[in-house]
Design a protein that fits this description.
heterodimer; A: about 270 residues; mainly alpha; about 0% strand; B: about 270 residues; alpha/beta; six-stranded mixed beta sheet; three-stranded antiparallel beta sheet; 7 helices
Amino acid sequence: MTSLANYLGYEFVQNALIAGTLAAILGAIVGYFVIIRNAGFAAHALAHIGFAGAAGAAILGLSSLEGMLLLTVGSGLFMGAAGDKVHRNDLAIGMVLSMSLGLGTLFLSLYSGFAGQAKAILFGNIFGVSGSQIMEMIVLSLLSMAGLAIFSRKLLFASTQPRLAEARGLSLPALSMAFMTVLAISVTLASQIVGILLVFTLVIAPAGIALRLCRSFWRGILISVALGVTAVWIGILMDCVTGYPATFWITALFFVLYIIVEAYVRFVAKSDR
Amino acid sequence: MTSALQISDLTLSLGGHEILSGVSATIDEGEFIGIFGPNGAGKTTLVRCIIGTLQPTRGQIEILGVTPGQASLQIGYMPQGHGGFDSTALSARTLVEAACHGDRWGIPWTSRESKQEVDRVLEVTDAAHYAHRPFSVLSGGERQRVMLAQALLGSPRILVLDEPLASLDPKNQALLIECVARVKRLTQTTILFVAHDMNPLLQVMDRVLYMAGGGAVLGKLDDVVTTASLSRLYGFAIEVVRVENRVFVVSAEGNVTESECDHHHHD
């Protein structure tokens, strides 16, 4: 345990914990809406679209975070606008995703210096987060949370009962676009920590498990955030202690938890339902 | 007195295809109207026009003297079917709470007044005792009573129910109809009840809106659902058969177009 306390004294570990916490909180809350909107594919696509953004940024001289944000938010808006039928926009998402991956390939071939950075972007580099990156992450988290604080009530209604919400005068495409923007931001943040390939871990896993268990909205959000933050902390500390990557620990934790919860829901809680 | 619903010379097209043409009807406040007709007669299209999510091609609809958009808070709506949530544990109550003032800005916080309102509507439809359970594990009848409760939020003056009996067994049909009839009796709410089969509603409805062949007729059951009136509406020979207080609409060739056992779901 003394060695664990030693690790906490290092700035790069502290930065990892701060950045991981931010990404986990935002991912857990946004992920909750991803699950009830059945938007898992969109979340997955946005992460991969971020790769093209990061590759393009290297050419334009932007930071990879800026490049990712630019492309994911743009694509998110497009997906939201194209798919006004909440659950029926898979084609639009697929098309934007494949175009972006094509662009990513092009950018990689144009700028070979990017190849080394590419691995960090794909698999995450949790201990490489700098102080200025943390500032950026705080600003983006606050922006996304402010957005959700403004329209999450409408979003929850429109996500659970789209036809009823429409009859009450809510604009489903506008809400969809607003949500996709927030999703794009949180996916970008999460990919800074666990990498593009594993964004699902922070955006889908905690919320998915919470929604399997919790019957009310607020309890679901709380459990989702608690799961996300706990897993990230354990993952980072296990990385320090064992040397195996944090991302592995985080995904393994969620997978084991998922199996347990699934078994509980199917076999134990069944009688009560 | 303003009427609950005034439809004047309404024509509706979807994708260049005319669904309704020149329909007029006036429905008074507190009436229970059964809306019937074969598949594709435009029942759901008319409903979408009444709740304001579809604009008429020609003519107009007035609800309580204003446009459907302006009247949206006066309309309680129960859409056809209810899917999703099968992988979540969200309770029926949580769904109703999300719908309560769900059109407002801010976070989904349920105030004490909203909680009481949710309690009230769940009591009315006899859904309170199971509303804490996940929506995904409820039976069809239980789900429909939750959806009806949701439509009652804010005590609307008009209830628009789109095929709430679809895929329910006779016992659950009767339960749901009893709930709706009770709401009408207690609060003088106007009821627009779309159904495939008119027989379960014979005791409770005041008038019938029968839709077919792009048109519609409104009137007492005995005036509208007759061989002469429906043949005119369909544009071909229709026979209305009454057996032991049940009504069957049969085409002259002998195919039943409306029957007790004909509850297939369509959307």
